[in-house]
Amino acid sequence: MATTYSSAPSALAADDAVPAVHHISLADLGTALRQGWDDFKAVPSHAVMLVLIYPVLGLLLARLVHGYAVLPLLFPLAAGFALLGPFAALGLYELSRRRERGEQASASDALAVLRSPSLGAMLGFGAILLALFLVWLAAAQAIYVALFGYAPATAIPDFARRVLTTPEGWSLILVGCGVGFLFALAALCLSVVAFPMMLDRHAGIGEAMATSLRVAAANPLPIAAWGAIVAVLLVVGSLPAFLGLAVVVPLLGHATWHLYRKAVEPNPNPPSTPPSRSPKRSAADFPANLLQWKRRSA
Can you give the pTM of this predicted structure? Predict the structure, then answer.
């Protein structure tokens, strides 16, 4: 059973702006992933549709890098793009939240985040993650220039030879991965529960980031393991031309919501949910309706 953790007095921890956080275990990570998979199976057409732009954009980025002969940025683009994943999963959190309440989830329900009172905060934090992504790209470019100079690689074989068979290439791998790890660690600690909290509690950027940092401080080993799981799944999903991300991203998005539920004390006075504009079924429901997949409770 999870235990409550808070660095503040109990009276302050009960305040909506400073929720208490729980100690979680490695087993909780597996449970969150299983619950996320259940959510994905229950609304597969919606989830795939919501994140379809993710692999498409990845392919476009890869083509852009190849077309302009800036191959050194290909790996930083692919790796750093994961920094934006928590923001890309906003609609998935909403779907998991509605299923958790026993409500019917549809594609239009995922768009309810656009009517959330905390939309401005979510967009603002998304801009922060985008800025972190751009700084990472600049750092990666600076590391490459420091080791290889400004001369571009003429082709993929030439670039691979430079990176894999020269001392400068090994230095690039070690230094680049080390710096990238620091960026990923910062993004993980700041955002592990930030967006779900904004959606659930209508929290501001400061409160959401502070709670994420408190969760990471209370659970260093589980959060580190969660970061490793995210990294491995994103790599696996990226291997078949980024197409696997159409499954990996919704799985991680749904699982992040359930991880938030395990790590943060539930709000005793939850804010009201904006009503759906239309109860009609969306055309995006068609594949799920045709297959008649059995919905399972979270």
Answer: 0.77
Task: State whether residue 279 is helix, strand or coil.
Answer: coil
Residues 212-240 pLDDT 10s = 999 999 999 999 999 999 989 888 887 76
Q: For 50-73, what is each residue's pLDDT tens digit?
A: 566 566 666 666 665 555 556 777
Distance CA 184, CA 29 (A): 19
Domain spans in the chain, listed from the N-terminal domain onward = 23-267
Per-residue CA distances from 74 to 65, 68, 120, 152, 294 (Å) = 6, 11, 31, 13, 41
Instruction: Report the alpha-carbon distance of residue 197 to residue 179 in Å, rounded.
Output: 28
Cβ atoms of 87 and 129 within 8 Å: the answer is yes
Q: How far is it, in rounded angstroms, from Cα 87 to Cα 50? A: 12
Q: How far apart are CA 242 and CA 294, in angstroms?
A: 28
Backbone angles phi, psi at 21, to 5 degrees: -115, 155
